[in-house]
Amino acid sequence: MRQRGAALAVAAGLALASLACGSAESKVVGQYFTALRANDQNTLTSFALVAFDQKVDDWKLVAEGPEVRTPAALPDLVKKQKELQAELDTNTREARAWGNDLKIYPDLDKVRQAQQKGQKIPPALQPIADKWDHFQSEDRRLKKAVADAKQAVEREKRNVGLSIGQMEDVESLTGEMISRDLDLNLTIGGAVKPYTMTMRRYDLKGATGGGRMMSRWVIQSLTPKA
């Protein structure tokens, strides 16, 4: 009897623990739709990156997917941005040095004038034109890549900041990114529609060590379930 009682106690404890774990996500969902209904943008933007343009009369949490852990993305995004910026700087220096070469500049000037007037490039100047076009093409490509990389870094910084709070050395934090999908039934216009909400939080620590940082779930997306 004692063993059976102990087993029942353990089972009850596990059930309560499971309920407690699930309630955290459910609470975030409830806060989201409460703020959405009240059009409380300050609250919404404090823990959600997605808006929802339909009136939700009711919602129900149907299922919670498993936590998916991946390496925190920000350090790699920052590294990629720096690498692309270095490529852009190198291309700019090489183009400037090549174009300022006294052996190149006179012919390059003729190429530029012909291009500005829409004239055909003489065969003798075509190698100069090709190299100039290559430098310009690389300049456009790398400038776009750097801009996209900066945008990705800023977006991820915002993700991290919403989850753990604002920190000066956020780019140096290492650890894991934790994602979880929730299946919801939303009542919209009297009809129940299935949706998937994706949430994310971070398990991070500083570059100099120390304990793990407290984090909270941030809502990333809310999409119709396929």
Description of the structure:
The chain has helices at residues 2-37, 41-47, 74-100, 105-117, 126-164; strands spanning 58-64, 68-71, 174-188, 191-205, 218-224. It is an alpha+beta fold and 226 residues long.
Strand portion: 15-25%
The helical percent reads 40-55%
| Alpha carbon gyration radius | 28 Å
SSE-based structural type: alpha+beta
H-E string: HHEEHHHEEE
Mean pLDDT: 87
Total number of helices? 5
Q: Let me know the largest β-sheet.
A: 5 strands, antiparallel
Q: N- to C-terminal separation?
A: 49 Å
Secondary structure layout:
Elements (H helix, E strand, L loop, with lengths): L1 H36 L3 H7 L10 E7 L3 E4 L2 H27 L4 H13 L8 H39 L9 E15 L2 E15 L12 E7 L2
Antiparallel strand pairs: 1-3, 2-3, 3-4, 4-5
Helix pairs in contact: 3-5, 4-5
Keywords:
alpha+beta, elongated, disordered N terminus, 5 helices, 226 residues, five-stranded antiparallel beta sheet
Brief sketch in words of this structure:
With 226 residues, the chain is of the alpha+beta class. Helix content is 54%, strand content 21%.
